[in-house]
């Protein structure tokens, strides 16, 4: 067999899978590892899907997504970015993940280099390397709060650089890039004729700062593919409803891959998406308030653990925590924490070199579970400190 998916990300979910398995067998497990909202998809959205199924919407659909849905997405994008896009600039795919993979396949090939700012979302490495291109990770350091290092990005550009993968808000750091940071990256992209693959799946869940789409900046629409989904904004991870918006020639190339790989998304999923984006356009505001409260509760509940140093996220549903002063590696921390307390967090190192010594904790749980999970984490850290004292 060929080995298409390589890199640390390929095995990053091992402990999480084990925790899910043991939870289903009745073990007292608290899953703080995955960014899957604990809310149900709003009823009105689910009802739209049921109605579509009852009406016989069970056949192949348009390969690039239904026109009405693409039109809604185009109008939304135009409103947010002031860029005059139409439904022809939009392709609807199976989640942001599928959009990242497909755009990567269209943009890069063997011999190209793609810059990705790390810590980065776990699947980027494989999504880039599957094209034959080489990934060039650029570190954003914990010491600078993981803010983009413009000089390091500029230094990483070579004649082979084809694109930059950009995530704002970021998973796992929760950093929201400022307009100034994005303008500097946009300048580099234009000066070196680069594509920007902009992953914006958390743009509706910002607590501090403001979302700026790099595609809205002057001269960027023609070189940017903007990717998002309903997974996080509407608690719809399982519906696999995402999209990419970009220049027509790129979307046309993506359509060809979608034809061979996907052959259209389920109609009922798309009908549900239409309702999510129209009648429930304000739903993310409600979710954002809840996540904001949970973020603050998580930070407060971790306070007793003085060996932990959490990085306060500006957005999203994750908290990166520096665990270096516990004396364990992040892998040891995650494994021992799980075996001793049943709390599952992610070793953050697979997100990139600069996340070494950090764990990622998700706050997509109820307040009671957050409090209990953090209590167990604090107790675990306490026992580590005591072991050190007696050693
Ligand atoms: N990008 C980032 C940064 C993510 O965290 C995720 C996971 N939610 C994805 C893409 C994939 O999202 P989707 O469920 O839309 O495929
Ligand atoms: N994006 C989510 C996370 O980072 C979910 C990923 C997944 O289920 N594989 O946790």
TrEMBL record:
MF terms (GO), sorted A to Z? L-aspartate:2-oxoglutarate aminotransferase activity; pyridoxal phosphate binding
Q: Name one Pfam family in it.
A: Aminotran_1_2
Keyword Manganese in record: no
**Which cofactors are named for this entry?**
pyridoxal 5'-phosphate
What's its EC? 2.6.1.-
The catalysed reaction is: L-aspartate + 2-oxoglutarate = oxaloacetate + L-glutamate
GO biological process terms held by the UniProt record: amino acid metabolic process
Leading EC class: transferase
Q: Keywords of this protein's UniProt record, alphabetized? A: Aminotransferase, Pyridoxal phosphate, Transferase
Aminotransferase class I/classII large domain residues are 27-377
| Family that this chain belongs to | Belongs to the class-I pyridoxal-phosphate-dependent aminotransferase family.
Q: How does it assemble?
A: Homodimer.
**Matches recorded under PANTHER family:** ASPARTATE AMINOTRANSFERASE (PTHR46383)
Protein name as it appears in the record: Aminotransferase
Organism, scientific name: Kiloniella litopenaei
């Amino acid at each position: 067999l060929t080995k298409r998916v390589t890199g640390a990300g390929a095995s990053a979910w091992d402990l999480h899978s084990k925790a899910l398995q043991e939870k289903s067998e009745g073990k007292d497990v608290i899953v703080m590892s995955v960014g899957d909202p604990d809310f149900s998809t709003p009823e009105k959205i689910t009802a739209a899907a049921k109605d579509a199924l009852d009406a016989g919407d069970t056949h192949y659909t348009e390969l690039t997504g239904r026109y009405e849905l693409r039109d809604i997405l185009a109008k939304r994008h135009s409103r947010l970015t002031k860029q005059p896009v139409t439904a022809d600039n939009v392709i609807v795919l199976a989640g942001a993940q599928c959009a990242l993979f497909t755009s990567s396949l269209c943009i890069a090939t063997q011999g190209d280099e793609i810059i990705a700012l790390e810590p980065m979302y776990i699947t980027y490495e494989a999504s880039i390397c599957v094209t034959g291109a080489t990934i060039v990770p650029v570190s954003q350091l914990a010491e600078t709060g993981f803010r983009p290092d413009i000089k390091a990005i500029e230094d990483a550009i070579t004649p082979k650089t084809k694109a930059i993968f950009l995530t704002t808000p970021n998973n796992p750091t929760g950093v929201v890039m400022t307009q100034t940071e994005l303008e500097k990256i946009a300048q580099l992209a234009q000066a070196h004729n680069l594509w920007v693959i902009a992953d914006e799946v958390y743009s509706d869940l910002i607590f501090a700062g403001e979302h700026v789409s790099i595609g809205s900046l002057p001269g960027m629409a023609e070189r940017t593919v903007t990717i998002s989904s309903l997974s996080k904004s509407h608690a719809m991870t399982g519906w696999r409803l995402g999209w990419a918006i970009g220049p027509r020639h790129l979307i046309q190339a993506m359509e060809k891959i979608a034809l061979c790989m996907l052959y259209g998304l389920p109609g009922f999923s798309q009908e549900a998406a239409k309702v999510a984006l129209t009648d429930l356009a304000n739903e993310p505001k409600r979710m954002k308030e809840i996540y904001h409260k949970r973020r603050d509760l998580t930070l407060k509940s971790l306070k007793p653990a003085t060996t932990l140093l959490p990085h306060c996220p500006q957005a999203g549903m994750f908290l990166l925590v520096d665990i270096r002063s516990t004396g364990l590696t992040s892998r040891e921390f995650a494994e021992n924490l799980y075996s001793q307390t049943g709390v599952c967090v992610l070793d953050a190192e697979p997100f990139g070199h600069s996340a070494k010594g950090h764990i990622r904790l998700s706050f997509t749980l109820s307040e009671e579970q957050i409090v209990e999970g953090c209590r167990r984490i604090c107790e675990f850290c306490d026992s580590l400190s005591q072991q050190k004292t007696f050693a």
